[in-house]
Amino acid sequence: MPDQSLGFLLHDATRLIRRRFEARANEFGLTTAQWRLLVYLKKEGALAQARLAELLEIEPISVSRLVDRMEEADWVCRKADPNDRRVKLVHPSVKARNAFEDARSIADDIYEQALAGLSDDEIATALNTLRQIIRNLSEDTSSTSETHHE
Questions:
Q1: Does 144 fall in a domain?
Q2: Looking at residue 74, what DSSP letter applies?
Q3: To which H or E segment does residue 51 belong?
Q4: Which of 3, 53, 101, 126 could bridge across to 63 with cysteines, CB 3.0–4.6 Å?
Q5: Total of domains in the chain
């Protein structure tokens, strides 16, 4: 049954989380993509658009447009990289830093709703399972696909 496969279940869960976040974060004017970009800036500090494209797994032109919109809305600003003047680094604005905790609180509320009815052990198992899936799919497939004959 396709709607019960791992891929469909993960996609549906992600879609529902994203919808809930966007509905609540709308008061800040943040989309999920913008929120993810701000999270990376919060974790990593100022980043070049090329690095943001890698982290967000979207095309550089899409990141450029996303940053343009966020800059217009005063969520981020671009500044020259002090080590390479050809590169512009994306920095969170004061507005972004001030709104970050509110947005984080919205995300935490949604995760709490998503995990309602699960015990701490079930939550730990689910998170560990997802981490293992990510590790399995992040490994170099060329080394795992080789067969060894004696």
A1: no
A2: T
A3: helix 49-56
A4: 53
A5: 1
Q: Which pLDDT tens digit goes with each residue over 5-64? A: 999 999 999 999 989 988 888 778 888 788 889 989 988 999 999 999 999 999 999 999
Question: Can you tell me the distance from the alpha carbon of 37 to that of 62, in angstroms, rounded to the nearest whole number?
Answer: 12
Which CATH number belongs to the domain containing residue 74 in this structure? 1.10.10.10
Of the candidates 85, 53, 57, 81, which has an alpha carbon nearest to the alpha carbon of residue 67? 53
Range of the domain at 127: 16-138
Scanning 28-119, the segments in alpha helix (DSSP H) are 32-44, 49-56, 60-72, 94-114
CA-CA distance, 107 to 21, in Å (whole number)? 6
Kindly provide the residue ranges of all beta strands, DSSP E only, lying in the chain, ordered along the sequence. Answer: 47-48, 76-81, 84-92
75 burial class (0-12, 13-18, 19+ CB within 10 angstroms)? buried
pLDDT at 142: 55
pLDDT tens by residue, 92-103: 999 998 888 888
C-beta atoms surrounding 106 within 10 Å: 20
Residue 97 located in a structural domain: yes
What would the two tokens of residue 62 be? 């899409």
Q: Record the pTM.
A: 0.68
